[in-house]
Predict the 3D structure of the following.
Amino acid sequence: MNKACLANIIKRHLSEYRDQHPLSPQQASVCQSIIQCRTEDMGGFVQECLACGHQQESFRSCRNRHCPQCQQTKSQDWYDQQMAQILPVNYHHMVFTLPHELNGWAQLHPDELYHLLFRAAWETLKQFADGGRHLSGQLGVTFVLHTWGQALTQHIHLHGMIPAGALSADGKHWNTTDKDSELTKWRHFVRKTSASPMVDFCSQNSIFEVPNR
């Protein structure tokens, strides 16, 4: 019996799925990479023990970022690095979604547009912390970029994990938002924040003028 893994599931059901749900070229390429990962289709090499002569054949990985088989270690390493930076404070979760009208540009110029999305989201958050209106100090955030939604359709958005506070300018004090009054201000700010600031930001910064990262 075949091992229950994503590659075998896709290999078994992809044809039937595609009969009812057309895939984009990128989605089809990802599925093909996952199916072929660490198989003869990817090519391989033979390792031999110099002491006993035992040989072991290994196949190359697809190295596709969506593949759980060969990218699991990298994902775990990234997770461990983020957990090591977690502060002993509460966190807020906020999502910034790129307007779907810009999806076509993301296909043509992904690096530039994703760069603008990160910048726009960060500038929007800084409005909350700067100037002493809500928080007086340096805000922090960890952004995670998602380019697809749960329905496997293009849905570009950032998940932001934001510490509930800010570091004072002198680096000696932590200005928290844990109090009810501050949390109320935060929630009000979140409700007011929409795609509009990001649309304005992207429209004012031509993707042809933003340097590659």
Residues 115 and 187 are 26 Å apart (CA to CA). The first strand starts at residue 44 and ends at 48.
